Amino acid sequence: MKFHETPLNGVYVIEPEQRGDSRGWFQRIFCEKEMAEAGLETRFVQANNSFNAEAGTLRGLHYQLPPSPEVKIVRCIKGALWDVIVDLRPTSPTYLKWHGVELTAENRLAYYVPRGFAHGFVTLEPDTETLYLASEFYNPQAERGLRWNDPKIGITWPLDGAIISEKDANWQDFNEEYHGVELMKGL
Fold it and tell me: Which positions are catalytic residues (predicted)?
């Protein structure tokens, strides 16, 4: 596995190394030893699968406050999506900065999302499927969201319109109290 740094502190794009022969190929998409050697989280308690029928479906931006902040490893297993995260750690040098990466079934890349980041994606093709690992169980009391088109964050999404749930469309623009900035200081 190769771990490619991004402009955001602690965020990586993970590239699996493929080995193959005339029968096909093999890739390791998670290795506790290699993750630990890179200083990354190795304990995951959930594997989640998301299917989106239409291109332009937007999910997010979600995160969980302490005591349930999650690390995620996100991978597209069918179709294509543009995955974006926002650094919500107030002590980070990249606080309130965002980064996006295209994940496809063909490129097989994964996105390592540390604790303290809001996460979301938009599908680029119909019938897109995402698989991701989460280091914490879902906690509805700790769940928060950041509005996908918050002008303070200024994410440039690769779409003209979005298919978005009422819940995701109604998240608040960033404000320190609602988004739990005080609780995020220790991350």
Answer: 62, 132
Catalytic residue IDs = 62, 132
pTM of the predicted model over 0.90 = yes
128-170 pLDDT, tens digit each:
999 999 999 999 999 999 999 999 999 999 987 789 999 999 9
Structural domain of 152: 2-16+29-184
Tokens found for residue 164: 């978005």
Instruction: Give the CATH number, domain containing residue 136.
Output: 2.60.120.10
User: Is there a domain that residue 170 lies in?
Assistant: yes
Q: CA 42, 92, 156: angle at the middle one, nearest 5?
A: 90
In a domain, 22, yes or no: no
Q: Is residue 23 part of a domain?
A: no
